[in-house]
Amino acid sequence: MTDRPTETADNGDSVDISIQSLPSIQESGTEDLRRRAVETLTTARDRTALLTSCVDDHDLTAQHSPLMSPLVWDLAHIGNQEEQWLLRAVGGRDAIRPEIDSIYDAFEHPRSARPTLPLLPPAEARTYAADVRGRVLDIIERTPLDGGGPLLDAGFAFGMIAQHEQQHDETMLITHQLRRGPAALTAPEPPAGDMTGLPAETLIPAGRFTMGTSAEPWSLDNERPAHQRILPAFHIDTVPVTNGAYQRFIEDGGYTDERWWAPEGWAQIREHGIEAPLFWRREGGQWLRRRFGTVEAVPADEPVLHVSWYEADAYARWAGRRLPTEEEWEKTARHDPVSGRSLRHPWGDEDPTPVHANLGQRHLRPAPVGSYPRGASPLGVRQLIGDVWEWTSSDFLPYPGFVAFPYREYSEVFFGSAHKVLRGGSFAVDAVACRGTFRNWDLPVRRQIFSGFRTARDA
């Protein structure tokens, strides 16, 4: 449903509504489903409004990086996808603006070309998105949310669109980070971290665990189905790699020593003169970074941010370690060795709250490591959800028994060795689009995304 889950590679949103089958999913009370659908759609729209009202029309229509769309494209695209899926496919309504479907088709137009399209101007884009939403709220009240086919089972289509909008909101937040000029967004500071008593790494015992899901109502096709994996024991960092640790890699010549780098990564940093994470610069013997229009000293105790897969992999090699596989990451985040079952989140099955994780743009930065003790996994690993997307060593591949739903272009066309998997979400991810089974993927060169990592080693 996206240009990609965190909107970083172009996951197109062309809607060929030939609905494919999906295994049965968990049911809930109809009124609870309606309430959840309305609440999640409203939360997403409030965030969209914030991200598009805090700058003027010039900033909305400008392209702040060829890697990203103009903000106004995302705004109307959100409305167009909602129209196509909820008004037309679910509600059976006539198209409001069929002539713009092609303009807001992410597969048809790469991001670098979108400023040349006849985009709806800001006021018209807002009016269009609001018109669609008003009609969607009427459809929610009138549509049965069970027994109406796979799109309506447990209100899936409404959850899919809420996730889609929140994913584009994260994309727009990335655009805000790339945008030059004074700060347009503010947020309170995250809670303090406390590493007292925390080991540097945690042993994850060998054995079987359940990966993926067949029961999470709004899970997306690449998270399905649940299946068994058996892993040998391994050690994994208790917290993500910090800025301070990453600075030691830089100071030890990490960016000038070819032996730590995959060949493609070495070529990238040499070609582009990369010497540090994106947005960092060294001045007067101190590392500074630009963060949403503000220049500040790089905080040593925060998870490192804006690094590519190649940078994460090089650091891990330098440290005598490796990136965890996707399977290792998910076992760390979900497996409860006492009960033997896989949890929805590291802390259990309840939905995330502000005491569990740094999500939803509540803070405009990762929290220091050692934060969120109530969000720890059963074995005590911290900050697996929120803060930074975590690169894994794994290629983006389907699970055994994968079924594309509701269309191939969400996941299937991206499977293969070109994309690496990221897990866990970032501070920019909303809870509706973040869970222990959620899979993000991107090209290994990407740095503008809110990406970090942790390392692992064999036991």
Q: What is the general shape?
A: globular
**What does the largest sheet look like?**
4 strands, mixed
The structure class reads alpha+beta
**How would you name the CATH homologous superfamily of the largest domain?**
paralog of FGE (formylglycine-generating enzyme)
Write out the strand line-up for the largest beta sheet, numbering strands in chain order: 10-9-8-11
The Cα radius of gyration reads: 21 Å
Going by CATH, the architecture of the largest domain would be: Alpha-Beta Complex
Quaternary structure: single chain
SSE pattern, N- to C-terminal: HHHHHEEEEHHEEEHHEEEEE
Low-confidence stretches: 4-27
List how many beta strands DSSP finds: 12
Mean pLDDT metric:
93
Question: Which CATH class of the largest domain?
Answer: Alpha Beta
User: Total domains, how many?
Assistant: 2
Concise description?
With 459 residues, the protein is of the alpha+beta class.
